[in-house]
């Protein structure tokens, strides 16, 4: 069975680094999902993983229209039916432009219609995040600056539009149930302990209230929110995290913040979890 799992999000939202981290986890066969067969071509994924192995996050895939798909046959550790998943990595700039232009390329639309699940990425502390303008203050500021350009489409508006794309295009699951959406709050290692305990849902409600309200009002999609740290720390700002990774490798680094039945949030070392839930494992 072939299923597409679509990754969406704006620029610098963490999609590419997650794809690069996903393959080593599948290949290690320690998580809920394992690689049942070796993929034919994982050049793109290995390039991303090489950046992480060298102690650096992968550079942003700015303004590229090249399709870089990662296709792999997976199963769970209990020997379930094998499933071929296709993870198209489409740059955040192209997703943002699609929202601004109200137009999606035909091949993307076909991929969305083939998929019955998606991961939507939001990154903590991204310098690409565009906040809604305070128009009273902004008008005065722009007048002083002589009509300088506005920052552009607010990030949470773009994310709401991406959710709308998913709502109207994703196919029902094979059993007839609703398509699944994992909302992944990446760079979750950057939040303080109190925010971690409150969880990524509370973070979205506070930082992206429009998106949080939209997710609460969805009827056609089955939504789960999680936090993500692809290597367990900030490779740019935390030398100890970078040195530890260089010394011991990627294995054991990184985690998913998952919600327990009692509403608490804990770190789960299984980085396949967002995809495993989307495809129903």
SSE topology:
Elements: E1 2-9, H1 15-28, E2 33-35, H2 43-53, E3 68-76, E4 83-89, H3 92-101, H4 106-114, E5 117-123, H5 135-144, H6 155-169, E6 180-186, H7 193-198, H8 200-207, H9 209-216, E7 222-229, H10 239-248, E8 255-259, E9 265-268, H11 273-279
Parallel strand pairs: 1-4, 1-5, 5-6, 6-7
Antiparallel strand pairs: 2-3, 3-4, 7-8, 8-9
Helix pairs in contact: 1-2, 6-9, 8-9
CATH architecture: 3-Layer(aba) Sandwich
Say what the CATH topology is. Rossmann fold
Low-confidence stretches: 134-139
| Structural domains: how many | 1
So, the CATH homologous superfamily?
P-loop containing nucleotide triphosphate hydrolases
SSE order: EHEHEEHHEHHEHHHEHEEH
Report on the biggest sheet.
9 strands, mixed
- End-to-end span in angstroms? 14 Å
Q: Provide the β-strand percentage band.
A: 15-25%
Structural class from helices and strands?
A: alpha/beta
The tally of beta strands, per DSSP, is 9
- Helical region count? 11
Rg from C-alpha positions?
Answer: 19 Å
Morphology call: globular
The first-level CATH class is given as Alpha Beta
